[in-house]
Amino acid sequence: MDMNPSNQRLRRVAFDFVLPASPAIENLRSWRLVLAGDDGLKENFSVPVDANVSQRAVIWVGELLRIFDTLLLTALAPLFGSHRLLFCRPTSRTGTGTGTSWRAGFEMPLLEGHAEETFRVALKGAFVIEEWVRKHPEFRATDTVEREAFFALAEQHALAPLRSFLPQAASTLSVLHAAFELGVPFSHLGGGTYQLGWGAKARRISRSSTDRDSAIGAAGVNRKDVTARLLRTAGLPAPVHELVNTLESAYSAAKRIGWPVVVKPSDAERGEGVQVDVQAEDLDAAFTRAYEHSKAHLVLIERQVPGICYRIFVVAGQLLYAVRRLPIGVYGDGKLTAAQLVEKACESDRRLPPGKRSHLQPIDELALTELVRQGLQIDAVPEAGQFVALRRIESTAWGGVFEDVTSTIHPENLRAALAASALCDLDVAGVDMISCDITVPWHVNGAVINEVNFAPVLGASVISRLHLKTYVTRLLGGDGRIPMEVYVGNAAALIAARQAVNRLRASGLATALTTHEWTEAPDGLPWPMAVDGLHARVRALVLSHQVAALAIVVQTDELVDRDLPLEGVDAVHLVNEEWISCQPEAALQRKRELLRLLQAWQRV
């Protein structure tokens, strides 16, 4: 994907290297595509035989930097545009051959709020991978063993260290990618929390949760028994269960509820410690497992409701999408046996990088038990399109298969899910309903709301990814941008900015004004700030919900020495070139550089 400067701010990086005597550029590209999860064998790529050393150096550096990009993105860095190589040249005057010292510079999206060490770790990891590829020319990207060795190398020398600097979640990355594609600016506030948009139009997200999710609601839904009691009190369909902390009380509760029962931890997530179809002879093991997964050592003994779990994803009081959550499994083709279908799926899985693999495992005891429950044997040939489950239930730990039911969910079931989300004070919620048929009202077929989930996983499936842009636009009501204009020059620039601010305020927009020395609030009063300089003041202003528009007065060359404070502005007005230079000895050169930056800053 080409980088769009108006979506992400940029930074420049330079590094020194020695060009290898025999750079394995073709192999490097193949292994880079393996790391990215693409099939590099389909690319017909080769370095021109007559390429000179400088051309080979540029191609080699390009591949190295693509590995750099891939490592960062695999580690869940919000890097949605590729690097842009600025220069690649020898630093020695003695020649340009291999063994000569070279220097390269590139521009990349700014990883705001992340440790400076992050990009150095990624660059070092790229060099380690390049050296490994060069030293193993006989290794083939199609060989499973050699691929695993390559993945282990990348994990040890790059991905594991990078994750310590990148406190991200897959849902966060999915949301930010959608924002990037929509042209929505975003900023990292620290700890994996991001702001989408600017000023009065901004919203904040962490994973799929937003700044409008109630802290009380988020804490409440973490306890399944508390959530069920609240739902039941509000007249919504909830599970029947009892809370226990001993095996003896678990037996007593199960007898009262009626076998079989569901046994689950009261406060665990991801489906961990949950067991269904529990009979008396299974209770001991099921209770122990649930007890160990519960932080509070409290276990729910629950009446088992027939049906399938449906996830109803709610955003801002509206349905985003709904899916039928099937356990991990495979689909028949009318030709292969169940065992062959699983082996084929596992083989395809093994070709992917570890982070992109499913939870599918070779057939084990749990899978055999589930096959028998479905009336199948391991050597049976399922019909074409027949779903063959390998687990009893879907869970985040085991994985699953999702089928879209957004257009078929009954309005009464949707109404109940929306009411549950509002009752729990959640702006974003994953409402899980157990139902035999989601097209039938809950009060007709005995369906229940099994759970209400805070910060449900978003973007993990194809169906979910289709709705990411709707999620972002629904939160922001647009692209999250506020009017921004820049005025460049001396006192005349300030006068022009003041006139524009007065017009905007007269139209009802709460407009702030700032120079490098002082800032004026939308009400016209001084806005004292504990920061210095234009860059810092602009960054502070776009964090404030008070600011619905902003006028920026550039009167120094401060911005030449750092990244621009915003992804793009609506207009740059060059009033005159008589601004104050912080470094008068290089004023002319720095003025030219500043004008170039400001011209690029203006959104087209």
Brief sketch in words of this structure:
By secondary structure, this protein is of the alpha+beta class.
Distance between the termini: 19 Å
Strand order of the largest sheet: 16-13-12-17-18
Radius of gyration: 29 Å
Taken from the alpha-carbon principal axes, the silhouette is flat
- Class of secondary structure makeup: alpha+beta
Structure report:
- The chain has 604 residues and is an alpha+beta fold.
- The protein contains 18 helices and 23 strands.
- The strands form 6 sheets. It has a 5-stranded antiparallel β-sheet with strand order 16-13-12-17-18. Strands 21-20-22-19-23 form a 5-stranded mixed β-sheet, with helices on both faces.
- The longest helix is centred in the N-terminal third of the chain and has 22 residues.
- The N terminus is likely disordered.
What are the main properties of this structure?
23 strands; 604 residues
Secondary structure layout plus pairing:
Layout: E1 10-18, H1 25-36, H2 53-74, E2 84-90, E3 101-109, H3 117-135, H4 144-165, H5 170-181, E4 186-190, E5 193-196, E6 203-206, E7 209-210, H6 215-220, H7 224-233, E8 241-244, H8 247-257, E9 261-265, E10 275-278, H9 283-293, E11 299-303, E12 308-315, E13 318-327, E14 329-331, H10 338-350, H11 365-373, E15 387-389, E16 400-404, H12 411-423, E17 428-435, H13 442-445, E18 448-454, H14 462-465, H15 468-476, E19 484-488, H16 491-506, E20 511-514, E21 519-520, H17 534-541, E22 549-554, E23 571-574, H18 587-601
Parallel strand pairs: 19-22, 19-23, 20-22
Antiparallel strand pairs: 1-3, 2-3, 4-5, 5-6, 6-7, 8-11, 9-10, 9-11, 12-13, 12-17, 13-16, 14-15, 17-18, 20-21
